[in-house]
Amino acid sequence: MEEDQETRLVSEHGLTLLHFAAINQDHGVDIYSHFYNLILDHEDVDGEEPIHYALRKGNYHFAEEMLRLRKAGEDNLLQFFVMHNNLDFAKLVFERDPDLINFVDIHRKSLLHLAAQYADRSMCEWLIGLNLAPDAKSERGSTPMHFAMRNRKHGADLASFFASKVPKFNKKNNLGQTPLHWALRYENLEAATRLLDLGCSIRIITKSMMNLLHFCAENNKLESAKLVNRWNGNLIRNSCQDGMTALHIAAKNGDVEFCEWLIASGVDVLKLDNQVNLFLVNSILDPNLKSQKDG
């Protein structure tokens, strides 16, 4: 059998040669160096990779080497296990190196920002228990609640969790966007609904007088727009600072489906913006929609 075939053998429990090397504290790294073509992130039947085996065995040097070789963007083992939502292993790393709890990435995101985006409530509770601030701000002024809105699996639950920790949880970041804006931007409709249930205003506007429906049109998020419209059917009539309606914005983006939905939902197709423009459908919409505009 060729050496390459040997190194790719997998046991009935999903174990590779690298899983066994991970628990070899004396020679594990040397084994990988010899069989350099081993798959770093192969999971066993329980979903554990060699890096998990190494850490459980206390083979920290091997685990750190695996992290370095993966080149997945994590700077340290605590960040890795937080982002992979593995609380037990995060605790093992913390016990070894408590100073890692103060890690922030190049965008000034703390481990709690990362947990909000990638993990669940238990991870966030643990990190807050270690004195990470639930209202900490990233480089652009975004809080963990903002990043929780990118978390499709746990975002709605985390919305409730962070709302209980931060009284004014729907604050704007430096771009004028609230967590509700982020939930709509990433079409996390369950999380957006939870925020609205928690009392977030559907009528919030930016400095340019852009409401949430305008925001959805600007970002081509039709499903989010439908949610906003269900909560407040009057926003479709509003114009932002340039006199543009959601229809102007959707037409400018060339989003035909969005334009069709806005027209069917009752937007004013004859409304002019500040440049005395209609909604620019002539060049992007089909003749049927154009005929609706013309009367």
From TrEMBL:
<feature type="repeat" description="ANK">
    <location>
        <begin position="175"/>
        <end position="207"/>
    </location>
</feature>
<keyword id="KW-0677">Repeat</keyword>
<dbReference type="InterPro" id="IPR036770">
    <property type="entry name" value="Ankyrin_rpt-contain_sf"/>
</dbReference>
<keyword id="KW-0040">ANK repeat</keyword>
<dbReference type="Pfam" id="PF12796">
    <property type="entry name" value="Ank_2"/>
</dbReference>
<dbReference type="InterPro" id="IPR002110">
    <property type="entry name" value="Ankyrin_rpt"/>
</dbReference>
<dbReference type="Pfam" id="PF13637">
    <property type="entry name" value="Ank_4"/>
</dbReference>
<feature type="repeat" description="ANK">
    <location>
        <begin position="242"/>
        <end position="274"/>
    </location>
</feature>
<protein>
    <submittedName>
        <fullName>Uncharacterized protein</fullName>
    </submittedName>
</protein>
